[in-house]
Write a structure and sequence with these properties.
The complex is a heterotrimer of chains A (128), B (385) and C (262).
Chain A: H1 4-27, H2 39-44, H3 51-71, E1 76-78, E2 84-86, H4 89-96, H5 104-110, H6 117-120
Antiparallel strand pairs in A: 1-2
Chain B: H1 10-36, H2 51-64, H3 67-76, H4 85-106, H5 115-118, H6 125-152, H7 161-184, H8 197-223, H9 230-261, H10 264-274, H11 284-302, H12 304-308, H13 310-336, H14 352-384
Helix pairs in contact in B: 1-14, 2-4, 2-7, 2-8, 2-13, 3-7, 4-6, 4-14, 6-7, 6-14, 7-8, 8-9, 8-13, 9-10, 9-11, 11-13
Chain C: H1 2-30, E1 37-39, E2 50-55, H2 61-74, E3 89-92, H3 94-97, H4 108-112, E4 115-118, H5 126-130, E5 136-138, E6 144-146, H6 156-160, E7 167-168, E8 196-197, H7 203-206, H8 213-217, E9 224-228, H9 235-242, E10 245-246, E11 258-261
Parallel strand pairs in C: 2-11
Antiparallel strand pairs in C: 2-9, 3-4, 5-6, 7-8, 10-11
Classes of the chains: A mainly alpha (128), B mainly alpha (385), C alpha+beta (262).
Chain lengths: 128, 385, 262
């Protein structure tokens, strides 16, 4: 191999750099997220769909809600259990989950995900 | 072949350094624009496109000018152009890159730019602009690279390159036809609503692009052992002078229609640029600079001793390039918005961040050009020895 | 040596492509949602071609301000007041509303009148024609809609609109105009920097059976009348039958749906 020293050093630096998020995560990981339900949410017993489905696919569902409401003009969602909801992040989802910093942000911050929904959609005011 | 760009003289590396520095300055200004929004520019509700789109408009023409050496060489066997087709193609690559960068920095939401591909909209000219610009970029990269590397190995390029070369000829015409269509199909903007918009684009492209190509050839001859050839340069100069005459003629045609018909909508744009309208006239000095430089350049180019002398030719080419940069790169786009749909005037002055980003994009384009030209020239020098 | 390096890279490329396709197919499969469905609100207004008729004789400072405020408040439209302003509905004089038709001897009443201007929701909209992402499109009921989720902020639609009806968010309203004051309507979103906005004919109100806000605000005087042009018994058809009305720049063929009784 030509320039063996340089090449091997380069590969090592690359591997370390590439896996650094995982390495740092091993050493320094924050507490796991604990999303809190508001009293209103607890009362409702179930979200629009089942909890496991929401945890896994709420992003996809919100995309579908957005397309159906804005682009197709269909603002009523008939859930799998037959209940009807108004298709609105701001007025339906956030109506129950009005504690963004203790609910939505919990998992988003932990996963370092930064959804830009709230740049436009107004999150309910929280009592800090 | 890329390794030839990694070896160069001190002057080469200083040039690379300066261009990279300007690129960095532009990138920093762009980050500032991303965080604050396009409010950092001088654009407004009335003048919603500014120098970013204006530069893109001008550079589309420069990019298409590669066809002016490719067509004569491949279709009509003009042997003198054999040495410089690669320079034309690489100039096209750099210019199209600048076009794409200028569009990117002008977008309100550049992170959503893939929406144009995810949601294709064939009725939108902007969609087709994306298609033809990217297509032309890939065509020229592939053609240039394949032909150059074949030349280096002293063999014929693979057979599939020829049809791509033939395709690049009408494709070059398409890129500024489509760009002209962006403007020429808008019902509310009378300054742009002219059937000869695409023809004007073509004419000024075939003057400005080859003029730049001549200047680059003269520089290449000076800084390297590769000589593009005096005959090639003279032939390109002929193309420039014809294209300039037609360009100026087209502007005169526009002015005639506007002022002989006396229709206000047609006249207002020209009145604004040439003498000012309702007390507003910050483009007037630019317009007259364009007019004077364009006429002077054409006269110089028409005069055989001035055209044959490469020093005066260089001056003429600079005049051609800058006059058309003003006409297509500033006055055309801005004036389209003046007066606004309410017949009032909001003027436009670019801001410092806007100029910084513009300079940064130009520097990036020239950086790409420098590297590609270094590769081409190194290969030419290599096979000559 | 060269031969095998080339084949190695080829195999690497193809396997990356293959693995990539595999995972994306997997993602697509997961998006199924079972028996969920979407439906329009049964109370929603249905029509084939919504239009507005503005009775110019009934316009004055007060009426027009009521209409503008109603719209701008419920839609959280920031009021910058400079050349980067955002406006969905506003007033201007005759010579600016109908440029080219004014002359030196205009009736005083018309010359001074504040004309209400807004998006015309054209039947042949050039802005829709030019949008590269369908972020603006024409609905079946004639409303020219905006999808701010998709807009890339290219502002081509602003260049195409002959009526100057569109505004761009040059800056972020939340961190500038609404920095120290709450957006007036917590039930409607704001926009963010980098997207275009304009009157949406209160699509969110039409969806639940309510009139556009500007129409509602002046309903006592009936300065603005709203209805379906394709319904021969609608109020707009009645009003147009009885009064001569003009539209802005009809010669451009955009077929605007906002009429002005002068």
């Amino acid at each position: 191999m030509y320039n063996k020293g340089l090449v091997i050093t380069g590969i090592v630096i690359f591997v370390v750099f590439f896996t650094s998020p995982f390495l740092i995560g091993l050493v320094k990981s924050g507490p796991p997220p604990e999303p809190e339900l508001t009293p209103k949410a607890k009362l409702a017993k179930q979200c629009v769909e089942a909890k496991e489905y929401m945890v896994e696919s709420h992003m996809q569902m919100l995309n579908d809600w957005r397309n159906q409401a804005v682009r197709e003009g269909k603002r009523i969602y008939v859930a799998t259990d037959g209940k009807e909801y108004t298709v609105s992040l701001q007025n339906t989802c956030m109506d129950c989950h009005s504690n963004k910093s203790k609910f939505c942000d919990q998992c988003h911050n932990y996963a370092e995900v930064n959804p830009y929904c709230w740049e436009c959609h107004i999150a309910p005011k929280e009592k800090l | 072949m890329l390794e030839t760009a990694l070896k160069g003289s001190k002057k080469y590396w200083i040039l690379i350094g300066v261009l990279f520095g300007l690129h960095g300055m532009g990138a920093t200004a762009f980050l500032y624009q991303l965080s604050k929004g396009l409010t950092v520019t001088g654009m407004s509700r009335d003048v919603s496109w500014g120098i970013y789109i204006a530069q893109f408009t001008f550079l589309v023409g420069v990019a298409a000018s590669a066809v002016m050496v490719v067509l004569p060489y491949y279709l009509h066997n003009v042997k003198e152009f054999g040495k410089i087709t690669i320079l034309g193609e690489f100039l096209a690559v750099a210019a199209v890159n600048m076009c794409l960068m200028f569009i990117l920095v002008d977008l309100g939401k550049p992170m959503r730019m893939l929406n144009v591909i995810l949601h294709p909209t064939p009725n939108s000219i902007l969609f087709w602009d994306m298609v033809v610009l990217n297509g032309y970029l890939f065509l020229n990269i592939i053609i240039g690279w394949m032909v150059l590397s074949a030349e280096r190995k002293q063999v014929e390029p693979p057979k599939w390159v020829k049809p791509l070369i033939y395709l690049s000829i009408p494709w070059a015409v398409s890129i500024h036809t489509v760009t002209a269509f962006l403007y020429a199909g808008l019902p509310g903007r009378h300054f742009w609503l002219t059937a000869i918009m695409a023809a004007r684009f073509l004419a000024s492209a075939f003057a400005a692009g080859p003029a730049l190509l001549i200047l680059l050839c003269l520089i290449v001859r000076k800084v390297s052992k590769f000589d593009p050839g005096k005959e090639a340069i003279q032939k390109v100069a002929n193309i420039v002078v014809y294209a300039m005459i037609i360009s100026i003629f087209f502007v005169v045609l526009e002015i005639f229609t506007a002022f002989y018909s006396q229709i206000p909508g047609h006249m207002h744009g020209f009145v604004y640029t040439f003498v000012g309208l309702h007390g507003h006239g910050n483009l007037v000095p630019w317009t007259w600079a364009f007019a004077v430089m364009a006429v002077l350049a054409t006269l110089m180019l028409l005069c055989p001793p001035l055209r044959k002398n490469e020093k005066t030719l260089a001056i003429s080419c600079l005049l051609v390039f800058f006059s058309l940069w003003i006409e297509k790169g500033i006055t055309l786009v801005i004036t389209g918005f003046i007066p606004n749909p309410f017949d009032t005037i909001t003027e436009y002055v670019p801001t410092l961040p806007e100029v910084a980003i513009t300079v940064g994009v130009w520097a990036t384009g020239f950086l790409i050009l420098t590297i590609l030209y270094k590769i081409a020239v190194s290969v030419k020098e290599e096979i000559a020895s | 040596m060269e031969r095998s390096r080339r084949s190695f890279l080829k195999i690497l490329g193809i396997s990356t492509l293959g693995l990539g396709t595999l995972s994306s197919v997997d993602l697509l499969a997961k998006a199924e949602m079972g028996k969920a469905a979407f439906a329009p609100d049964p109370q929603g207004m249905t029509g084939k071609r919504w239009a507005l008729v503005v009775d110019v004789k009934k316009l004055d400072e007060e009426t027009t301000q009521k209409a503008i405020e109603a719209c701008h408040l419920i839609h959280n439209v920031p009021d910058y007041g400079d050349d980067e302003e955002i406006k969905w509905i506003w007033t201007d004089k005759y010579e600016h509303a109908f440029p080219g038709t004014e002359h030196a001897y205009l009736a005083e009443e018309i010359e001074e009148k504040p004309f209400l201007l807004l998006c015309n929701h054209c039947a042949n909209p050039p802005c829709v024609r030019v949008c590269p992402t369908q972020a603006t499109w024409q609905r079946g009921d004639g409303v020219v809609m905006m999808d701010q989720h998709r807009c890339i902020g290219c502002r081509y639609c602003m260049a195409a609109c002959p009526f100057g009806a569109r505004s761009f968010n040059w800056k972020d309203p939340r961190t500038t105009y609404f920095k120290d004051k709450e957006p007036p309507n917590p039930k409607y979103p704001t926009r963010t920097k980098g997207v275009v906005e304009k009157c949406n004919l209160c699509a969110e109100r039409l969806a639940v059976g309510e009139m556009p806000a500007c129409v509602e605000a002046v309903k006592d005087s009936k300065a603005i009348v709203f209805g379906d042009l394709e319904d021969p018994h609608s109020e707009v058809r009645e009003v147009l039958h009885e009064h001569f009305a003009i539209r802005r720049k009809p010669e451009l063929g955009t077929n605007p749906n906002v009429y002005y009784i002068v």
